[in-house]
Design brief:
Order of helices and strands: HHHHHHHHHHHHHHH
Strand content: under 5%
Structural class: mainly alpha
Number of domains: 1
Number of helices: 15
Helix content: over 70%
Oligomer: single chain
Largest sheet: none
């Protein structure tokens, strides 16, 4: 649906040539904006509606603890949701609003863009089952580790006050006297979040659209090819500013691999583009403080680099 709407606006209403770069940028901007706004409104509203039936104590009992199982299940849930880094943010925000520990929410945020069923199917065709299995397991493990670190070192202090859940007795299920009042509560929650974030979303998607349209893959190949032993960090450094889903980046990663670039290097590039992006950082700034964004990006980048070197070392056994 979003594809049809964005194509209609760009091609028919704005009369842009479909083969032009400008059409590609506008189409990408409209499509991603509509998708993210819809997902943000829908997921926040639905989770707020469901939360009206459950007290904060029950939420914390099931998914709000800081046991290792909570991080694992959050990462596993992220692995079955086909979102890019920016599309994962609505659920991340909903988790925080639902009193889920920040680290558990981070486990989802890391894994969701890195691993999904579409990527697994494509990777099977490109790289085989060994690489696919190791990649998926490492993606989930990275999410668990990042989440555990976030809670161990008390990073919740960096969550902005107006995003934190309100702990009060009036939020218990008894305050809702009808189905309509619960729907209204969900609607108000999602509307409030969108009012706080709409400008950040549009700005980040615009930046992502420009990067998507004007950064040619040939430049990426040149930078990564000439980095020598530092190929893996270079691949991560090149990948972080870019914006795209793992499925759309995978063909580029395979082209790099077919040209002789080591497996771990191309997978590091894939993971960096998928899990981290400047648009994501811009949107996160409306949720958490800059210090935590830098810490989060640094930890995830370090984890991706270590995974990349591991794949390079194991390449002879996996391919």
């Amino acid at each position: 649906m979003f594809e049809l709407i964005s194509s209609f606006i760009a091609a028919d209403l704005l009369n842009l040539n479909k083969s032009s770069k400008f059409y590609e940028i506008i189409h990408f901007f409209i499509y991603d904006s509509l998708k993210i706004f819809f997902m943000l409104f829908f997921f926040v509203a639905v989770l707020a509606f469901l939360r009206s039936y459950v007290s904060d104590e029950k939420i914390n009992f099931y998914i709000g603890s800081k046991k290792i199982s909570s991080y694992f299940f959050a990462a596993l849930f992220g692995a079955i949701t086909p979102f890019c880094s920016c599309s994962s943010l609505p659920l991340f925000i909903s988790f925080i609003k639902s009193s889920v520990p920040l680290g558990v929410a981070f486990s989802f945020l890391v894994t969701s863009p890195l691993v999904n069923e579409y990527l697994a199917v494509l990777m099977l065709g490109f790289f085989g089952y060994k690489v696919t299995l190791v990649y998926v397991l490492n993606g989930i493990l990275l999410g668990v580790i990042v989440g555990k670190i976030a809670d161990k070192y008390g990073f919740e202090k960096y969550v902005l006050r107006d995003i934190k859940p309100e702990y009060c007795e009036s939020q218990e299920s008894e305050r809702f006297d009808s189905f309509y009042s619960r729907v209204k509560y969900g609607f108000n929650e999602s509307t409030d979040i969108i009012k706080k974030m709409w400008l950040w979303i549009l700005g980040s998607v615009l930046l992502g659209s420009l990067i998507h349209g004007y950064v040619p893959k040939e430049n990426i190949e040149k930078i990564v090819s000439f980095a020598g032993f530092m190929q893996v960090p270079a691949a991560v450094a090149v990948g972080v500013p870019l914006y795209g889903g793992c499925v759309s980046i995978l063909p580029i990663a395979y082209v790099l691999f077919s040209k002789g670039i080591p497996l771990g290097t191309v997978l590091s590039f894939l993971m960096a583009v998928s899990a981290l992006s400047l648009p994501e950082a811009i949107m996160l700034r409306r949720v958490i403080k800059t210090e935590l964004i830098l810490i989060f990006f640094s930890i995830v980048s370090l984890g991706i680099i270590l995974i990349g070197y591991m794949f390079n070392f194991l390449q002879v056994f996996l391919i």
